[in-house]
Amino acid sequence: MATETIEAIAQFKEAQKEAWAHFAPLETFTIPPAARLVKHARVQSGQRVLDVGCGTGPVAVTAARKGARVTGLDLTPELLERARENSRIAEVDIEWRQGDAEELPFPDNTFDVVLSQFGHMFAPRPEVAVAEMLRVLKPGGTVAFSTWPPELWIGRILAIVRKYAPKPAMEVPPPPLWGDPNVVRERLGAGVKDIVFDRASMLTTALSPQHYREFHERTAGPVLKLVAHLSAKDPARLATFRGEIEALLAEYLEDNVVRQDYLLTRATKV
Question: Does pTM surpass 0.90?
Answer without folding.
Answer: yes
